[in-house]
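Page 42, continued from yesterday. The earlier attempt failed because a stray header line got pasted into the input along with the sequence. Redoing it now with the clean sequence only.
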Amino acid sequence: MQRRDFALRLTALAAAPALGALPLTAMAAGVGQPAPPFALRNTQGQTVRLEDFKGKPVVLEWTNPGCPFVRKHYQGNMQALQKAYAARGVAWLTVNSTETASADHLAPAALAQWMSDQNASPTAVLMDEDGRVGKAYGARVTPHMYLINAEGVLVYAGAIDSIASARVADIERATNYVRQGLDELLAGRPLSVSVNQAYGCTIKYKS
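This time it went through. C-alpha coordinates are written below.
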Protein backbone atom coordinates (compact mmCIF):
# COMPACT_ATOMS: atom_id res chain seq x y z
CA MET A 1 0.00 0.00 0.00
CA GLN A 2 2.86 2.37 0.81
CA ARG A 3 4.40 1.77 -2.61
CA ARG A 4 1.08 2.45 -4.31
CA ASP A 5 0.62 5.71 -2.35
CA PHE A 6 4.16 6.74 -3.21
CA ALA A 7 3.53 6.09 -6.91
CA LEU A 8 0.38 8.19 -6.80
CA ARG A 9 2.26 11.00 -5.09
CA LEU A 10 4.89 10.86 -7.86
CA THR A 11 2.12 11.12 -10.44
CA ALA A 12 0.80 14.21 -8.71
CA LEU A 13 4.26 15.73 -8.48
CA ALA A 14 4.87 15.05 -12.15
CA ALA A 15 1.92 17.28 -12.96
CA ALA A 16 2.73 19.86 -10.31
CA PRO A 17 4.59 22.26 -12.67
CA ALA A 18 1.27 22.61 -14.49
CA LEU A 19 -0.26 24.13 -11.39
CA GLY A 20 1.88 27.22 -11.73
CA ALA A 21 2.17 27.26 -15.51
CA LEU A 22 -0.18 30.22 -15.89
CA PRO A 23 -0.86 32.56 -12.96
CA LEU A 24 -4.52 33.23 -12.27
CA THR A 25 -3.81 36.91 -12.81
CA ALA A 26 -3.11 36.07 -16.47
CA MET A 27 -6.65 34.79 -16.98
CA ALA A 28 -8.32 36.41 -19.97
CA ALA A 29 -11.75 35.85 -18.40
CA GLY A 30 -12.10 37.44 -14.97
CA VAL A 31 -14.53 36.33 -12.30
CA GLY A 32 -17.26 38.92 -12.00
CA GLN A 33 -17.08 39.75 -15.70
CA PRO A 34 -19.22 38.50 -18.61
CA ALA A 35 -18.13 35.03 -19.72
CA PRO A 36 -16.48 35.14 -23.16
CA PRO A 37 -18.94 33.97 -25.83
CA PHE A 38 -17.99 31.02 -28.01
CA ALA A 39 -19.21 28.60 -30.64
CA LEU A 40 -17.68 25.11 -30.79
CA ARG A 41 -18.47 21.85 -32.53
CA ASN A 42 -19.63 19.02 -30.33
CA THR A 43 -18.44 15.46 -30.83
CA GLN A 44 -21.34 14.91 -33.25
CA GLY A 45 -20.24 17.85 -35.40
CA GLN A 46 -23.03 20.21 -34.36
CA THR A 47 -22.31 23.82 -33.39
CA VAL A 48 -22.95 24.66 -29.74
CA ARG A 49 -22.88 28.27 -28.57
CA LEU A 50 -22.65 29.56 -25.04
CA GLU A 51 -25.60 31.83 -25.80
CA ASP A 52 -27.74 28.71 -26.40
CA PHE A 53 -27.91 28.41 -22.61
CA LYS A 54 -28.87 31.99 -21.83
CA GLY A 55 -30.92 32.09 -18.64
CA LYS A 56 -29.32 28.92 -17.24
CA PRO A 57 -26.30 28.39 -15.00
CA VAL A 58 -23.47 26.80 -16.98
CA VAL A 59 -20.53 24.64 -15.91
CA LEU A 60 -17.43 24.54 -18.10
CA GLU A 61 -15.24 21.50 -17.46
CA TRP A 62 -11.90 21.18 -19.25
CA THR A 63 -11.00 17.55 -19.80
CA ASN A 64 -8.38 15.19 -21.20
CA PRO A 65 -9.01 11.45 -20.73
CA GLY A 66 -5.25 10.81 -20.74
CA CYS A 67 -4.79 12.82 -17.53
CA PRO A 68 -4.67 10.89 -14.22
CA PHE A 69 -6.45 13.74 -12.44
CA VAL A 70 -9.32 13.53 -14.92
CA ARG A 71 -9.45 9.75 -14.54
CA LYS A 72 -9.56 10.21 -10.74
CA HIS A 73 -12.74 12.25 -10.97
CA TYR A 74 -14.25 10.03 -13.66
CA GLN A 75 -14.37 7.12 -11.24
CA GLY A 76 -17.84 8.47 -10.48
CA ASN A 77 -17.42 11.93 -8.99
CA MET A 78 -17.69 13.95 -12.21
CA GLN A 79 -20.56 11.85 -13.56
CA ALA A 80 -22.52 12.28 -10.32
CA LEU A 81 -22.13 16.06 -10.51
CA GLN A 82 -23.20 16.15 -14.16
CA LYS A 83 -26.32 14.12 -13.47
CA ALA A 84 -27.32 15.88 -10.26
CA TYR A 85 -27.09 19.40 -11.63
CA ALA A 86 -28.61 18.63 -15.03
CA ALA A 87 -31.68 17.60 -13.03
CA ARG A 88 -31.65 21.08 -11.48
CA GLY A 89 -31.49 22.92 -14.81
CA VAL A 90 -27.73 23.47 -15.08
CA ALA A 91 -26.03 23.16 -18.49
CA TRP A 92 -22.75 21.22 -18.28
CA LEU A 93 -20.29 21.73 -21.12
CA THR A 94 -17.20 19.53 -21.24
CA VAL A 95 -14.41 21.08 -23.32
CA ASN A 96 -11.33 19.39 -24.78
CA SER A 97 -8.59 21.78 -25.90
CA THR A 98 -5.94 19.13 -26.60
CA GLU A 99 -4.23 19.86 -29.90
CA THR A 100 -4.36 17.26 -32.66
CA ALA A 101 -0.57 16.66 -32.63
CA SER A 102 -0.59 15.60 -28.97
CA ALA A 103 -0.43 11.93 -28.02
CA ASP A 104 -3.39 12.64 -25.71
CA HIS A 105 -5.60 13.91 -28.52
CA LEU A 106 -8.80 11.98 -29.19
CA ALA A 107 -10.81 12.48 -32.35
CA PRO A 108 -14.44 13.51 -31.73
CA ALA A 109 -15.84 10.01 -32.16
CA ALA A 110 -13.21 8.51 -29.85
CA LEU A 111 -13.83 11.17 -27.20
CA ALA A 112 -17.59 10.61 -27.44
CA GLN A 113 -17.02 6.88 -27.00
CA TRP A 114 -14.82 7.43 -23.95
CA MET A 115 -17.47 9.63 -22.37
CA SER A 116 -20.11 7.01 -23.12
CA ASP A 117 -17.92 4.28 -21.62
CA GLN A 118 -17.69 6.34 -18.41
CA ASN A 119 -21.48 6.76 -18.29
CA ALA A 120 -20.92 10.52 -18.34
CA SER A 121 -23.84 12.82 -19.03
CA PRO A 122 -22.70 16.35 -19.81
CA THR A 123 -25.01 18.54 -21.87
CA ALA A 124 -22.37 18.59 -24.61
CA VAL A 125 -18.78 17.55 -25.22
CA LEU A 126 -17.02 20.26 -27.21
CA MET A 127 -13.90 20.23 -29.39
CA ASP A 128 -11.55 23.21 -28.99
CA GLU A 129 -8.56 21.81 -30.87
CA ASP A 130 -7.18 25.23 -31.82
CA GLY A 131 -7.36 26.25 -28.16
CA ARG A 132 -9.01 29.61 -28.67
CA VAL A 133 -11.78 29.07 -26.14
CA GLY A 134 -9.48 27.52 -23.54
CA LYS A 135 -7.11 30.46 -23.81
CA ALA A 136 -9.98 32.95 -23.66
CA TYR A 137 -10.96 31.49 -20.29
CA GLY A 138 -7.40 31.04 -19.05
CA ALA A 139 -7.88 27.27 -18.71
CA ARG A 140 -4.50 25.69 -18.05
CA VAL A 141 -5.04 22.25 -16.58
CA THR A 142 -7.45 19.34 -16.68
CA PRO A 143 -9.81 19.41 -14.95
CA HIS A 144 -10.18 23.18 -14.82
CA MET A 145 -13.68 24.23 -13.76
CA TYR A 146 -15.74 27.37 -14.37
CA LEU A 147 -19.23 28.39 -13.27
CA ILE A 148 -21.31 30.94 -15.17
CA ASN A 149 -24.51 32.31 -13.68
CA ALA A 150 -27.84 32.63 -15.49
CA GLU A 151 -26.99 36.24 -16.40
CA GLY A 152 -23.85 35.11 -18.24
CA VAL A 153 -21.35 36.30 -15.63
CA LEU A 154 -18.36 34.15 -14.70
CA VAL A 155 -18.68 33.46 -10.95
CA TYR A 156 -16.14 30.70 -10.31
CA ALA A 157 -12.80 29.66 -11.78
CA GLY A 158 -10.54 27.03 -10.29
CA ALA A 159 -10.23 23.49 -8.99
CA ILE A 160 -12.96 20.91 -8.74
CA ASP A 161 -12.07 20.34 -5.10
CA SER A 162 -9.66 21.17 -2.32
CA ILE A 163 -7.21 18.24 -2.45
CA ALA A 164 -4.69 18.37 -5.29
CA SER A 165 -3.96 14.70 -5.72
CA ALA A 166 -4.63 11.86 -8.15
CA ARG A 167 -5.95 9.64 -5.34
CA VAL A 168 -9.60 8.63 -5.69
CA ALA A 169 -9.73 8.14 -1.91
CA ASP A 170 -9.18 11.88 -1.41
CA ILE A 171 -12.46 12.81 -3.09
CA GLU A 172 -14.62 11.98 -0.06
CA ARG A 173 -12.66 14.16 2.35
CA ALA A 174 -12.18 17.11 0.00
CA THR A 175 -14.35 20.20 -0.24
CA ASN A 176 -16.02 19.99 -3.64
CA TYR A 177 -15.93 23.59 -4.84
CA VAL A 178 -18.13 22.90 -7.86
CA ARG A 179 -20.91 21.34 -5.79
CA GLN A 180 -20.60 24.05 -3.15
CA GLY A 181 -20.63 26.83 -5.75
CA LEU A 182 -23.58 25.44 -7.68
CA ASP A 183 -25.64 24.94 -4.53
CA GLU A 184 -24.98 28.53 -3.50
CA LEU A 185 -25.65 29.83 -7.00
CA LEU A 186 -28.95 27.97 -7.28
CA ALA A 187 -29.97 29.23 -3.82
CA GLY A 188 -29.30 32.83 -4.86
CA ARG A 189 -26.38 33.23 -2.47
CA PRO A 190 -22.90 34.64 -3.21
CA LEU A 191 -20.23 31.99 -3.65
CA SER A 192 -18.09 31.26 -0.61
CA VAL A 193 -15.12 30.61 -2.91
CA SER A 194 -14.98 32.22 -6.34
CA VAL A 195 -11.34 31.83 -7.37
CA ASN A 196 -8.61 29.37 -6.50
CA GLN A 197 -5.75 27.53 -8.16
CA ALA A 198 -6.80 24.58 -10.30
CA TYR A 199 -4.75 21.40 -10.21
CA GLY A 200 -4.22 18.76 -12.87
CA CYS A 201 -2.33 18.09 -16.10
CA THR A 202 -1.18 20.92 -18.33
CA ILE A 203 -3.46 21.44 -21.31
CA LYS A 204 -1.67 20.52 -24.52
CA TYR A 205 -2.43 23.67 -26.49
CA LYS A 206 -1.62 24.22 -30.13
CA SER A 207 1.43 26.49 -30.18
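Notes: The chain has six helices and nine strands.
Reminder to self: strip header lines before submitting.
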